[in-house]
Amino acid sequence: MNKLEKILFSISEKPIHILDRSISIDKYTSLDLSKSNSDLLNIKITNPVVCQAYITETLQAANAEVAFGGYLEKRNLYADKGNFSGEKTALRNIHLGIDYWAKEGTIVITPLRGKVHSFKNNTTSGDYGPTIILKHQISDIYFYTLYGHLSVESLSDLYIGKEFEEGSVLGYLGATAINVNYAPHLHFQIINDMQGCLGDYPGVCALSNLDYYTLNCPNPNLLLKL
Questions:
Q1: To 5 degrees, how large is the angle CA 110–CA 116–CA 118?
Q2: Residue 201 vs residues 43, 62, 146, 192: alpha-carbon distances, Å
Q3: Do 147 and 186 contact (CB within 8 A), yes or no?
Q4: CB 117 within 8 A of CB 194
Q5: CB distance 73 to 94 below 8 Å
Q6: pTM of the entire structure?
Q7: pLDDT at residue 89 in the model
Q8: Fewer CB within 10 Å: C terminus or N terminus of the chain?
């Protein structure tokens, strides 16, 4: 592990909540949305209604309230979204964060103390919708956490530099119409270098760029330990 990964791993020995603390960790279940999941072969996972039905089925089967997963998954979820592929750009279908699929309006909480780096409502089809990025410092290391697919209300009263304590309410999960045509969920991503981006950062990459993004966006589960 590199220095940032070691710091993330050392923060807690126990799982860290990133959604409403009233949802017990034992009510989380893993979800596979990869191309290799045979259960998805005959369903249109790009349709948010169909996707939500599959997630609901997964939750019910596990008696769970939150379905999570997706780091470095190669997905078909973006196949209908033009900004993920085109004649002049490589196909982007490898997911760089962890998704937490739960009910619209579910509370999102900060896993670490941090301050607002930037925020934006990214309204392009297939994008994040309302997004908040926090900046963190531990020892001499700076890094960032991105929270995508929030409600519009989550951006209210924000300003650059606003501080959030660990475990405080950051926002709420947005509806499908707000989070740009996805079933309600949180996209959580850790970023080493923002590369000058504000309120946005790639959450999906092409295979040709995977080595770079794997280093720049370490596995969030090093921190959260679900």
A1: 120
A2: 29, 33, 8, 11
A3: yes
A4: yes
A5: yes
A6: 0.95
A7: 66
A8: N
